[in-house]
Structures are given as structure tokens and as C-alpha cells.
């Protein structure tokens, strides 16, 4: 992890007609960090991530990745990838075909594709024999891992996650929290993660941004937020963890 600004937001405003969802966000995310955006429902987390991946346009302000301005760049040209809940997998295809999809788009030769898929199956602790398994025969946790493997096959610089674990039961969530943290270490990629659960944020993140009503209240490590919350809102939000 380096200290140089990697992903940089300056004065980012997002309006939906007369409603302002983001009020001029300034934010620096470092290369290789696990950065989590946490806040109550409606605080603007998904809106922010949608602007970062290019699913929606900024109203004002700029987003830079390294020295490149990306807020005007089409989504498919940005070196970013969004991991949704497992819903985004192709149900009629096999596990292997799903993971291979980005490699086919890049026109990689079949033998190389197969090797890369095997590496990704290993990385996500899925048996190589799953190559031919149907998505419909996979459990919720397996689908989540397959979705992650496919996202990594795009070889993005940044992976974005919008509440990927919120629909899962407690035990599976705990298991996947650990796996995600481990995956972050092993890939060295920048992870930007959204959750409304501060507990989840505290377990996984290098730094956390706490959002309220389209503004960032505090950016700090879990420990700093715990010991020195900057506002009553943060302190109360913190209290919900215990
Ligand atoms: P979060 O992900 O933190 O729950 P969102 O980013 O989804 O919050 O939403 C932030 C605010 O912006 C909410 O008040 C929401 O209703 C509003 N909003 C989000 N998307 C749209 C949209 N497409 N049109 C109008 N309002 C929207
Ligand atoms: Mg959301």
C-alpha cells in the first residue's frame, strides 16, 4: 500500500433533479487499501460507487485515477469492476464459462483461458471440477465466490462492492468477511467496499468513511473512529456495533 493519492474525488456533487444526493465529496483512496464506505440507508453510498464505476454521471466535480481524469470516461474503459450480489452471474452457463467470460472478451486463447480459470478457482477455494458445474447447482456462498472470480478475471485495478453480503445469513457472512479480507491481501488490489454495517467495516477495512446525508462525516481507521468519533452522529452509529 502506498500513500500517494490513487483514486481522488474533488468536489463531487450528484443531483437528482432538485434533490442533492452528494454534496461535494472530497476523498483520497490509496492504492492497495481496503477502503469502506459506511452509513445508514439513503446516505449516498451506492450513488458514490455508481459514479466511480461510471454507471452514472457526476453533476459537478472531478474523479481522477492516478493522473487520469475518469469521470467522463465510459464505464467499460475504466479499470474498475463492480461486484454485485451473485445475481449478476449468467445462470444458463457453467461456472467455468462465467469466469471465462471476461477472458473471452479480451480474446485470450483457450488454453490460456483455462489455466487462468483454474488459478481463479484455486484463489477462491473452489474445486477445479466446478468448471463444468451449472450455476443453478451452486450454493449462495459458492455463487458469491464465482462472482468474485469473474470480477478478478477482468483484472481491474479497483474492485467495488455494494453490500455484497447483506442478503446472506450471519454465519455465511462471517465466513465471507474473512475470505474477502484474505483475498484482498493475496491480490494486493484496491477494494472499495460499501456496507451499512459498521461491524463489518471494522473487521475488514484499512480505513473507513462514515457518510450521513450525502456528506462524509469522518474518514479514519476503525480504531481512530472508535476512540475519537468526530461527532455525535458517529458516536451513536458506533454505539450500534456494541
Ligand atoms: P445508500 O446506498 O447509502 O442507501 P443511495 O446512494 O442509494 O443511498 O441514495 C442516496 C439518496 O439518493 C437517497 O435519498 C435516494 O433516494 C436518492 N437517489 C438515489 N438514486 C436516485 C435516483 N436515480 N433518482 C432519484 N433519487 C435517487
Ligand atoms: Mg445502497
Automatic annotation (TrEMBL):
Origin superkingdom: Bacteria
Transmembrane segments: none
Listed GO CC annotations: ATP-binding cassette (ABC) transporter complex
GO molecular function: ABC-type transporter activity; ATP binding; ATP hydrolysis activity
Subcellular location: Cell inner membrane
Keyword terms of this UniProt record: ATP-binding, Nucleotide-binding, Transport
Topological type in the membrane: Peripheral membrane protein
The family this protein is said to belong to: Belongs to the ABC transporter superfamily.
Protein name: Fe3+/spermidine/putrescine ABC transporter ATP-binding protein
Organism: Notoacmeibacter marinus
Amino acid at each position: 500500500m502506498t500513500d500517494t493519492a490513487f483514486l481522488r474525488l474533488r468536489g463531487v456533487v450528484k443531483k437528482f433533479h432538485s434533490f442533492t444526493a452528494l454534496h461535494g465529496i472530497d476523498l483520497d483512496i490509496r492504492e492497495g487499501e481496503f477502503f469502506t464506505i459506511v452509513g445508514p440507508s439513503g446516505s449516498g453510498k451506492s450513488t458514490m460507487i455508481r459514479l466511480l464505476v461510471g454507471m452514472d454521471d457526476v453533476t459537478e466535480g472531478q474523479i481522477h485515477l492516478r493522473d487520469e481524469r475518469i469521470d467522463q470516461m465510459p464505464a467499460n474503459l475504466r479499470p474498475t469492476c463492480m461486484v454485485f450480489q451473485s445475481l449478476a452471474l449468467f445462470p444458463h452457463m457453467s461456472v467455468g464459462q462465467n469466469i471465462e467470460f471476461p477472458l473471452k472478451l479480451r480474446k485470450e486463447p483457450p488454453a490460456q483461458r483455462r489455466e487462468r480459470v483454474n488459478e481463479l478457482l484455486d484463489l477462491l477455494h473452489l474445486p477445479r471440477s466446478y468448471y463444468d458445474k451449472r450455476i443453478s447447482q451452486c450454493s449462495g456462498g459458492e455463487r458469491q465466490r464465482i462472482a468474485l472470480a469473474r470480477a478478478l478475471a477482468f483484472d481491474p485495478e479497483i474492485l467495488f462492492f455494494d453490500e455484497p453480503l447483506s442478503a446472506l445469513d450471519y454465519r455465511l457472512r462471517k465466513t465471507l468477511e474473512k475470505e474477502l479480507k484474505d483475498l484482498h491481501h493475496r491480490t494486493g488490489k484496491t477494494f472499495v467496499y460499501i456496507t451499512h454495517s459498521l461491524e463489518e467495516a471494522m473487521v475488514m477495512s484499512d480505513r473507513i468513511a462514515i457518510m450521513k446525508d450525502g456528506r462524509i462525516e469522518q474518514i479514519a481507521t476503525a480504531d481512530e473512529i472508535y476512540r475519537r468519533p468526530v461527532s455525535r452522529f458517529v458516536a451513536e452509529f458506533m454505539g450500534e456495533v456494541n
